Amino acid sequence: MIYSVSSPQEVAPYTVALPTSKSISNRALILNALAYSAKPIKNLSDSDDTQLLIKALQSDSNHFDIGAAGTTMRFLTAFLSKIVGEWTITGSERMKQRPIKILVEALNKLGAKIEYMEQEGYPPLRIFGSALEGGDLELPGDVSSQYISALLMIGPTMKNGLNLTLTGEIISRPYILLTLKMMETFGIKSQWEGNIISVPEGSYTPTDFTVEADWSAASYWYEIAALNKNCELTLKGVKRYSEQGDSKVAELFTQLGIESKFTKNGLVLKNNNQVCKQFNYNFIEQPDLAQTFAVTCCCLGIPFKFTGLQTLKIKETDRINALIDELKKMGFVLTSNQVDDLNWDGETCNKDEVPTIATYKDHRMAMAFAPAVSCIGEMKIDDPAVVSKSYPKYWDHIKEFGYISEEI
Hints:
Elements: E1 2-6, E2 14-17, H1 22-34, H2 48-58, E3 63-65, H3 70-81, E4 85-90, H4 101-109, E5 113-116, E6 125-129, E7 135-140, H5 145-154, E8 162-167, H6 173-185, E9 191-193, E10 196-199, H7 215-227, E11 232-236, H8 249-252, E12 256-263, E13 266-275, E14 279-282, H9 290-300, E15 304-307, H10 319-329, E16 342-344, E17 356-357, H11 363-369, H12 373-376, E18 378-382, H13 394-401, E19 404-407
Parallel strand pairs: 2-11, 3-4, 7-8, 14-15, 17-18
Antiparallel strand pairs: 1-18, 1-19, 4-6, 5-6, 8-10, 9-10, 11-13, 12-13, 15-16
Helix pairs in contact: 1-2, 1-3, 1-6, 2-3, 3-5, 4-5, 5-6, 7-9, 9-11
């Protein structure tokens, strides 16, 4: 399926109820299960990732296929390793290409028994669940925060708790802090001093919990506001003081002309047309915002230097090269060291007459690129349904705002 997308004829004030956070939803589901709680989590995300985790946790099967849900794969692997029984977990072809060796080796060191069913270091996995010893563990700080969060959440269930030492540079720190904060909400207080996180052995407490709106989803509306002059948007559901790392988007977009103000009706965005001459930022703590800022900066003609992108190459796709390839179709020439950066010095090339943007099974490619029609006039989005991974109503919402999207 391909969508043809064109820009709004008129821009009227618009209010959008943002989807709830899948990052928070998936952590809450695991913590609720570890608490053996009968209390339902309120306001759960309707994203594919969360729905797949719900299905897995409610299943009476010992085999789980979690599709393309990366968070679900990491969290469920750790969770099942301490549940007595034999389990298998697999996913999509892309999931079978996403490394999980660091997490598996860490769990095995803590007393788990996990085997690779196909290629070493990658799903699918066979897990022989049992009580875990826990104790001391060392991991590089620049691994996926999902590995770290998966280990931390099961830490209290281990005989000796978990003392996790993170070496080198720690990336995606806000996601780790979010996990620890939610663990505290469910009754387990940990300590993070220097590079050591200590989680005591203990029992989680059943807790009433409501999921807040997703700041990552809000980023696409900041982009829309930046690319549509005289735009006024109201975003409902986001918390002003949020543990979500992507709440940084509000501060960052001030450089791209967007003022944010919390009111009784929600978060109001206004475009003041005051933009910076160059945008430089280290996305080490907010890697999921990189696509939004790359597209926005190109469309506004703002050169940029992004660093801290080392996790982008192992996401749903290699996001660094995906951005380079797809922005070239729009006439922008980007460069990268192919490790952790992405740059645009203003160089342009001939754009495709009507660019067809490949999404690579990556929800954030579709959502970050669609608003670019406001600067290039018309485009096509291949496989637009990928947005269901985190924001199933995305196309409905931008159509209500004024974008025209239709299947061709």
